[in-house]
């Protein structure tokens, strides 16, 4: 479905199933004029979404998750936020120094996938919840799309 319909159509479908399975209420914001990205970019962002929501379900204790996609001339940003217990500060500190360290396979995989497309993963967390931001540069995405054409 992702390949045929794109993120804008696939994410609401995925969130509906996730909410039914997990009992976690989700919201989704995306600009009305959001255009398709390259196949690779959409796949990476979708995988980040899936892994982030899996972490919300397994670890956060939150009953809600907010998903937002925004786009500027320079970048596309996917944000997944919850209102759970947050990550311990020492884990965040170690993770910011070395992604191969304590944050686990899922977060490390998200970071590596984003880096392959010139992007980055930003995590902020406290006792009020966690926010994951996946950032991809637009120019890099456009050159990847043009190279494939």
Fraction in beta strands: 15-25%
Low-confidence stretches: 97-102, 141-146
Structural class estimated from helices and strands: alpha+beta
> Could you tell me the number of beta strands?
5
Distance between the termini: 22 Å
SS field, number of helical segments: 6
The CATH topology: Heat Shock Protein 90
Mean pLDDT: 84
How is the biggest beta sheet arranged? 5 strands, mixed
Secondary-structure element string: HHEHEEHHEEH
| CATH-defined superfamily | Histidine kinase-like ATPase, C-terminal domain
Classified by CATH, the class is: Alpha Beta
- Strands of the largest sheet, in order across it? 1-2-3-5-4
Number of domains: 1
Helix content: 40-55%
Query: What is the CA-atom radius of gyration, in angstroms?
Result: 15 Å
The best one-word shape is globular
The second-level CATH architecture is 2-Layer Sandwich
General description of the model:
By secondary structure, the protein is of the alpha+beta class. The protein has a single domain, classed as Histidine kinase-like ATPase, C-terminal domain (Heat Shock Protein 90, 2-Layer Sandwich). It is 50% helix and 25% strand. Strand 4 and strand 5 (129-137) form a beta hairpin. Helix 2 packs parallel to helix 3 (39-60) and helix 3 (39-60) runs antiparallel to helix 5.
Describe the SSE topology.
Blueprint (H helix, E strand, L loop, with lengths): L1 H4 L1 H16 L2 E5 L9 H22 L3 E8 L3 E8 L6 H9 L7 H12 L3 E7 L2 E9 H11 L1
